Amino acid sequence: MTPISVFDRSIHCRPDAGPPVTAQQGFTLLELLLVLGILGMAAMLLGPGLATLDSPGFNAQTREATGLLNYARRMAVVQGTPATIEFLSSADEADIGAREPEKAPTDVVGRWRGENITLSYRDSAGQDMPTDRGIQVTFYPEGGSTGGELTMRQDNRRQTISVDPFSGRVQVLDED
């Protein structure tokens, strides 16, 4: 009698054991539909965000304007002298260098320059002020200010920043 081995290579490695197992040659219809469905859902989520790429820039610029106004308010109270913030559009920037030195305001503690933003200003008396030479908002050591409403527009976005003339308090009124 011949001993039977547990593993006999001659049985398992024969060439006539059947066709060899090959790698898959393509994707199934189910896999393709699943991938297309995921891409469609991603497009639905990203589509509206891509349409408003300028919004983060607009929001950042309005936050910067609000921050400058609050900074000027603190500076006026701490230093005991008036503090002014100038708001300029892109066209007004060249006007700063054209001013005569004796007419340049000495109490300006900051300048805001808007990129593709339209400014409008209504003073504390409710009068619309021209913005062709920039807008100045001044805060006084007693806590008051020149006050008014500064409205910023970019495309269909609009934001209004209100400055109380008596307390100097700065707040955002509305946001579109």
Give the topology, please.
Blueprint: H1 9-12, H2 29-51, H3 55-79, E1 83-88, H4 93-98, E2 108-113, E3 118-122, E4 128-129, E5 135-139, E6 148-154, E7 157-163, E8 170-175
Parallel strand pairs: 1-2
Antiparallel strand pairs: 1-5, 3-4, 3-6, 6-7, 7-8
Describe the protein in words:
- This protein is an alpha+beta fold and 176 residues long.
- It has a domain at 55-175: minor pseudopilin epsh fold.
- It has helices at 9-12, 29-51, 55-79, 93-98, and strands at residues 83-88, 108-113, 118-122, 128-129, 135-139, 148-154, 157-163, 170-175.
- It has a five-stranded antiparallel sheet with strand order 4-3-6-7-8, covered by helices on one side. The protein has a three-stranded mixed sheet with strand order 2-1-5, with helices on one face.
- The termini are far apart.
Task: Give a nutshell description of this structure.
With 176 residues, the chain is an alpha+beta fold.
What key phrases describe this protein's structure?
elongated, minor pseudopilin epsh fold, alpha+beta, 3-stranded mixed β-sheet, 176 residues, 5-stranded antiparallel β-sheet
